[in-house]
Amino acid sequence: MGGSPLINAAILAGEFPIGYTGGGAVISSRLSGSDLIAIASPLPVLTIDGWSRPEIKSIADVRGKRIGVTRFGASSYFSALSMLESGGVKPNEVVFIQNGGVGESYAALAGGRVDVCMIGYPFGLNAKNAGFNLLFRPSQTEYGLFPTAVIAAREAWLKDARNHKVAVDFLRALSEGQQFARDNAAVTKRALRRFTRVDDDASLQGSFEYYRDAFPSSLRVIEGDGECLEICRPPQGQAG
For residue 73, what are the contacts with CB-CB under 8 A and spacing of at least 6? Predict the structure, then answer.
């Protein structure tokens, strides 16, 4: 879909009921008055790194430079804001370029259209191999506790018992698949090879290792009142 804001807009428009989207974008949507809600948190840490041209050695050096993100309001944008704040740089001191996708952001960096881009794996490995500089890794800072990805749906849609069952079944399947992604390198790389059409084993292994520590043991979302959303809890005796 080209970024969380477009995914959320499609959910709200009824194009599909469930979306894999950015946590920050869901919050922004709620603040704008929508009934979008996060029903699972498959990636509760910020896994979008900042890669720069080799001559940019520090975050302070990005003043006046171009930073590539997928879209405003997407997780890549929030990662860029975190990077700037950690280095004492104000957002109005840089130029943000919306590229529409992570692959497009990396292509913009490789092609010289931006000076910094916010990307995750496997594009981070491509950036490393191409000689670009790892400028910011949020998972190693206080900015790492940010929901890069959540599963979102409309509250109005979830109120229907039939839809609620669809959501529960979907989250059980997602939980099982993510468990494989955390614990089974062979299965994970086979799935990545099939669906991304990437055959390079180093890229596949790098992606597996990068996300293995980022995937949580539970998809549950902690609500503001401290209670857990139990929608993805399986019945006793079944796999999560």
Answer: 3, 4, 5, 22, 24, 25, 28
Give the span between the Cα atoms of 50 and 52, in whole angstroms.
7
User: Could you tell me the strand order of the sheet in which 116-119 lies?
Assistant: 95-98, 66-69, 116-119, 49-52, 133-136
Per residue in 80-114, pLDDT (tens digit) is: 999 999 999 999 999 999 999 899 999 999 999 99
- Tokens 């997602």 correspond to 174
Tell me if 154 sits within 8 A of 10, measured CB to CB.
no
Choose among 202, 209, 201, 216: nearest CA to 184: 209
The amino acid sitting at 139 is: S
Residue 79 has pLDDT above 60, yes or no: yes
d(CA 157, CA 160): 6
The confidence band for 198, taking pLDDT boundaries of 50, 70 and 90, is confident
Q: What is the pLDDT of residue 164?
A: 93
Domains of the chain plus CATH, in order, are: 4-44+147-212 (3.40.190.10), 49-144 (3.40.190.10)
CB 96 within 8 A of CB 71: no
Asked if residue 143 lies in contact with residue 86, where contact means CB atoms within 8 angstroms, the answer is yes
CA distance 19 to 96: 26
* β pairing state of 95-98 and 66-69: parallel
Q: Phi/psi at 53 (nearest 5 deg)?
A: -65, 150
Model-level pTM? 0.75
- On whether the CB atoms of residues 12 and 113 are closer than 8 A, the answer is no
Phi, psi (degrees; rounded to nearest 5) at 44? -85, 5
DSSP designation for 123? H
